[in-house]
Amino acid sequence: MSTKTAISLIVIIGSLAAISYAIAAQATGIIPQTDLRNLAAYYLQNTLNAGNKYVWAASPEAVTAIVWDYRGFDTLFETSVFFLAIIACIAAFEVEMPARSKREDNKQTDLGLSIIVKVVTKIIGLIIVVVSASIALHGQLTPGGGFQGGAALAVLPILFIMAMSRFALEDRKVNKTSMLILRSLGLLGIATTVVLPLIVGLLTHNGAYIMQNQIKPDAPVSLPSYIADRMMGGNLWMLNLSEFLAVGAGFTLTFVLLSLPESVFKKILENEKYATH
Amino acid sequence: MYETIFIDVFLAVMSTVALIFTYLTIIQKDLVKAIIYSSVESAAYLLVFYLLMGPDLALAYVAIGIGIYPAVAFFLVKKTERYESE
Lengths: 277, 86
Hints:
The complex is a heterodimer. Chain A is mainly α. Chain A is about 65% helix and about 0% strand. By secondary structure, chain B is mainly alpha-helical. Chain B contains three helices and no strands. Chain B starts with a helix and ends in a 7-residue tail after the last helix.
């Protein structure tokens, strides 16, 4: 490391440490407001306020209630942005999945890292599935939710690709088609949950809103807030479950495509070059 | 009282660690090492988020900042070059 780099590093770290110390010692006054803002107080008072069912979300988790109920349309559009990004990724990787050669089939047990890493990866894989499912399915009760759970689940295919090679995923039927189906199921689940109150309202001749969760003064349609004395938060758990599937499968799909070897694309590009001449 | 001071100091230390690793990520020419520094930075921020009472954010950050983003970057490095040229 040159003297110049060392000096600039020391200056940056020194000034940052000084600022951090000043803030930690409250030289700037108390920065985070200690009393709640009106908006925050409204959400905290009403998410689980069974006394006023017109504004409650039937969920003790205020963040999930805001994400999927009070500000549900934000999340809905965010999900569609993610959906379009995955679609773009599939379009960019519009190639035939290469058939596995005999040689690769024989070699498959030797691919990847050592047996110790493989076994540990499998054990961790099980834990990842359990933890991510609990993050997603408990989203209406504890911190977490569909996106967080799905993102945690997507770490599993990465570990498998790194430790055992791409073929380990293919052998477990994790490929482009199956992940597309799973992701579409998730999106279908979200769409169904969004229009479910409308359908119920039509059938019972009541007014209802798109993405409605609990009853409103002019729309007496309400999704179940309890199932067998378990608090479900109406549409929150359905949306979390669907988002979990959509995000987990969407990320996995991207990784399956990204792990294609370079030679596959080179071959396709060369074929195209000859085809145009 | 002591608990608050501990949290404040811990926050200051973790943000400093994050800054150091951001700097190391930028100057590092070996991209694999740069990705690892970057995920250490994410880990430091993860603790900051947790202490600032954002467990939802921390849960998303642990999967994306430490798991998925470095993995995508590794794929990218694997398909291009490992060392950044001048």
